[in-house]
Specification:
The complex is a heterodimer of chains A (314) and B (132). Chain A is mainly α. In chain A, 55% of the residues lie in helices and 0% in strands. Chain A has one domain: Ammonium transporter fold (Orthogonal Bundle), CATH 1.10.3430. In chain A, helix 1 runs parallel beside helix 3. Chain B is mainly alpha-helical and 132 residues long. Chain B starts with a helix and ends in a 6-residue tail after the last helix. Classes of the chains: A mainly alpha (314), B mainly alpha (132).
Amino acid sequence: MSLFTGPLIHSGKTNRMMMTLVLVSLTPALIAAVLHYGFTAALLVICALAGTWLTELVLDRQHAFDGSALVTGLLFALLLPVSAPWWLAFLGGVLATGLGKHAFGGLGCNLFNPAALSRVILMALIPGAWFVSTAVTMDGITTASPLARESSMLAPTLAELLSGSTPGTLGQAAPLAVLAGGLLLASLRTIDWRIPLTFLAAVAFLALLLPASERIAGHAPWLLGNPLIHIIGGGTLLAAFFMLTDPVTAPFAPVGRIIFAIIAALAMMLIRYYTPYPDGAVLAILIANACVPLIDRFTLELGAAPRIKTPQSF
Amino acid sequence: MTPYDAIFLALLASRCINRPQQWWLVVLAPLLSFVIGSLEPLGRLTEPLTALFAVALAPRWAPVGLLLVVPEYSSLTESIVAAAAWFLLDALFGSLLKRVNEDAVTPHLRGWPIQLLILGVLYYSFLPLVWI
């Protein structure tokens, strides 16, 4: 007698196919970043890709050519500020694959988004390396972004935000390119549309709802009560479409995915409004990832129908 | 030591000891620490009494309880938040550890190393929320 464990229904999409779709969807954002920031951005992307792919090749040759390492590397590169040194991109790539993925058992076994995990580990270990010219005032501050402008500065205009003329990470160079890639993935059903939709709606709602705090100096008044800035600025779009939707680190059930997106939005907005951290997107992803086993436990016990997980990770 | 650090050390300690039936009573430790600490007539007896009550809450989990009473809680709210945070993070940490596929983890990372990695990620991920 043969015994099998689930999932037994195959979605028809292979890892390689899904990773290729994600890579294609990320290409507009990648091209925009390279056009916007030039050679430095290209170098950072190459170093991050080299870090993830070489680590994958050493640790798991079998999956080195399915594209998952390239997706992780590209996502990590898009989280980097252009002022980051090349070695940080390479090291981040190594950590994303080595610690973020293979420490937990490899493809499909990771608890946290590998790119986000690597970013947070490097923020904690070498916070000073993230900037060349921008001042760092405390441990863990991520990057200069429109959300980190001094309170004395004027609010960035919509045109500034959309054109990437405000300082930020490579992924913020062209929010429309990220959005286009995300919508492509959603339309092809590679990602569950519930997650980005709920996340963005919750971000907008919380931006209007949360009261201002006088305790944190440095937050510009225009940052508060402005949903559009919070959706377009920072890493919101990249998180919504490419990082929170990673099927390995998201809950099984549709209800669970909605709860997961709300938790991520709440964590990000609390960090943006009430802490000196300029952009809480990456930390919010990890906080939401940490809640997934509990969300799964409650939603599955309540009888919500589980969705089939595809064994992939980006 | 800040309450936040104490919470994570207590989480670590809680993995070293088997969970007794009354483990959840440890959640009262921060509150107890604040209340006993605010009773001025106790004087020099404050700390030993706090320690004694922390141990009495769940004797087999004394190290966890003692770690939670070490920080000075500045207000009742802070002690309640610390207790709630410990309780929630304990549940999160436990559920994450259950999700780890130990057989898939590289042999030299199984057990303590992977637990420490998860705890470290939780520590840095939730750290900004201390500001709130």
